Every structure is written in C-alpha cells, then in structure tokens.
Amino acid sequence: MSPLKNLSVLRKLVQLAAFLFLIYGSAVVGFYAADKLSGALPALACAYDGQTADYCVLVPIQHQMHHRLGEALMGGGEILKALMPTLISLGTFLMLFVLLNKAFCGWICPLGFFQEVTHLLGQKLGFRQVESLSDKAVDRLRPWKWALLGGLVFGLPVLAGMGVVAHELGNPFCDICPSRILTTLATGDTGQLVVDTTSTTTVVLSMLGTFLFGLMVALGMTLRQPFCRICPMLALHAVFRKIGLARLVKHATPRCDRCGLCAKACPMDIREIHTDMTRKDVTFADCTLCGRCVEFCPDKDVLQIRYLGLPLFRSSPAYFKARKKAQTEWEAVRLHAFKGIPIVPARDETTTGEERP
User: Fold this and answer.
1) Taking 70 as the threshold, does the pLDDT of residue 257 lie above it?
2) In sequence order, what DSSP letters do the residues of 244-268 get, joined into one string?
3) Where a domain ends, among 191, 212, 235?
4) Which residue, 227, 222, 141, 229, is CA-closest to 179?
5) 3-state secondary structure of 344
6) Could you report the per-residue pLDDT of 308-324, keeping only the tens digit for each?
7) What angle do CA 325, 5, 270 make, to 5 degrees?
8) Rg (Cα) of the chain, in Å, rounded?
9) Which of 235, 269, 292 is the last residue of a domain?
10) Looking at the 3D structure of the chain, how many domains does it have?
11) Are the C-beta atoms of residues 162 and 73 closer than 8 Å to each other?
C-alpha cells in the first residue's frame, strides 16, 4: 500500500506539519502576527510558548471570565459589555471551527499528536497495550471533559474575578494543561516545569500540572489518547459539532451489528459507532474525526467522512485489505524491548483497535 494512500500516514504528516507550525510558527509569520493571528484556535496550542504561531481559545476565555465578567459581577458593571470580548473570541473560534469541525482534535492539535507519538513509542518498545477501556470506565471518564470546561475554564475564573476564590485561580486550566509544559519544553524553555512557591494555590496548581503531564506520558505508552478523553477543548467542540462542515456519516447494514471493527479501531473507545443503527451523523461528542473507524470498516460505503455533504473518504473492502497488508509490514518493525518487559505479539488489525500508521 502506498503511504500516500494510507489515511493514517497522511494524517500523521498533517499533524507533524501542524505541530511544527503551532510551536515554532512565529519564525514564519512573525512574532507580532503570531500574537494577533486569532487567539481563538480550536486546538491546544499554548500561549506560554513564545514561538507559537497561534494559541487556543481557552486562554482568552479564562482571562475574560476573570478580568471582565467576574469583576463586572462583583462591581456592578454592565454584564453585556463585559461579555462582549468573550463573544468575539467565541465568534472567531466558530469561524475557524466550522471549517474542520472536530478534525481540529484529530488532525491539528499538537497535544493530540504528541500522545499518538508517545503511544507508538510504547508499542514499539513492547509495553503491553490497553486495547480498549471497559464501557464502565469510558462512561466514568466522559463527564470529566465537561467538568473541566465548566469548572476550570468558566467557573473558577469568574469566581476569582468576583474575589470569592484566590486571584491565582484566574486561569486554572492553563496552569494544569499538559500542552503548556509540552510546547514550552519543545522550544527549550524549562520555566514552566517548576513548582511555583508564590502561594499555596500556585504550589498546588504547578505540582498538579507537572503531575498531569507526567501521568499523560506514562499512560500514553499503553493507552490511546489519555488526556484527550478529559480535554475541555473536546467538550467545547461537542457543543458546536452540528454546525461543522466535516462529518462522520454511517449507513448501517445488517452486518454492522456483528462486526464492531470500527469501535475497536476508535482511539476514544466510542462504542456507539458500532451499536447505533439509526443515526446517520455519528460525529459523537468524543469523536476527533481521525478517520480510523472508516479505515477499518470492511464494508463498502458504510462509514464515510463527508465535507459539505460530499464524501472525502469512504470505507471499502479493497482499502481494508490493503491496509491490513500494510499493517503486517508495519508490525514487523520493532525496537528492542526494555529488559524484563516482553514484546506482546502483534495482533491482527481486524481484531484490535491499536493505533499504528
């Protein structure tokens, strides 16, 4: 199979280009343009990275909740005037989001790409992989992205502006976001990988942020997309996913209730791709439009990625067979396992959802 016909390989190339641009891109667009480009990117590109070409919308939203809305609520200011900067940020976010929908997660986000690379490394080093989480574990994790969006992006910053909680809680998600540490370390800046002893609040936040980054790396060696499952950006995407131009579409057949390969291939363990037999638009809240479910569906046109209603990529038996052969060749490439950690025998892609190019 030609690499240029392999959707996973193409996606990795797009992710790599986006990673380089969103971390080092100010060298291309210039520092001033990088600071003003949008500030409303639908992906976790961090403003703490001094070389970034753009940064995500969660940064200005927290600041606006803190310094605009919270202070207006406390001081009796005009609420609509205080909300106007947030509405502008969300409006810019929506103009970008409509173009790619949730594909910003699966194709553009630097943190998502880093987790995929970490997982590939874990596979090649022979760490035993978690093929998929149980339904109960998935159901327990799903509310967390909404809790982080409501609590850390909107709730605590407003309360900090009102003086109800410490001022240091004005941008709590940024303080614990793994992207902050990843992107700054990628540019040689170790200033974020410290314990901030300014106050008890900053000590807790900085320690929690460092712990979360380390936990993400450790889990990422064996589990697909560990942080993506609780990411508040994914929740924000889910709110507006019905207006995006890119969609995942399903045309169920009688075989669908027996196959289940799409759900096994999904890095987010979205079992509904397999079990839902009535819905056409299956761009579920946790979907990142990575396209893996389409790749590993063996039936013609059952699953499709569509843009403006037109199919961009469709499932087909021919692609499935070629992809399976490419998978076998890829599994033959192995790094040496760590001493004492045996390499787990490769499993057929028709029975596993493990990610490999």
Assistant:
1) yes
2) -SEEEEE---TTHHHH-HHHHH-TT
3) 235
4) 227
5) coil
6) 999 999 999 999 998 88
7) 75
8) 21
9) 235
10) 2
11) yes
29-66 burial code (b ≥16 CB/10 A, e <16): beeeebbebbbbbbbbbbbbbebbbbbbbbbbbbbbbb
Tell me: do 252 and 205 sit in the same domain: no
Is 50 exceeded by the pLDDT of residue 173?
yes
Token pair, residue 192, equals: 């974020």
The count of other CB atoms within 10 Å of the CB of residue 245 is 15
Q: Which helix (H) or strand (E) holds 326?
A: helix 317-331
Whether 119 and 220 have beta carbons less than 8 Å apart is answered as yes
pLDDT digits 0-9 by tens, 108-145: 999 999 999 999 999 888 888 888 899 999 999 999 99
Residues 211 and 315 in one domain: no
The pTM of the full predicted model, rounded to 2 decimals, is: 0.88
Amino acid at 203: V
Query: By residue range, what is the domain housing residue 73?
Result: 3-235
Tokens of 320: 């499935």
- Location of structure tokens 């874990």: 122
Is residue 338 pLDDT above 60, yes or no? no
Report the 10 Å Cβ neighbour count for 162.
16
DSSP label at residue 126: T
Quote the CA–CA distance of 79 and 84 in Å, as a whole number.
9
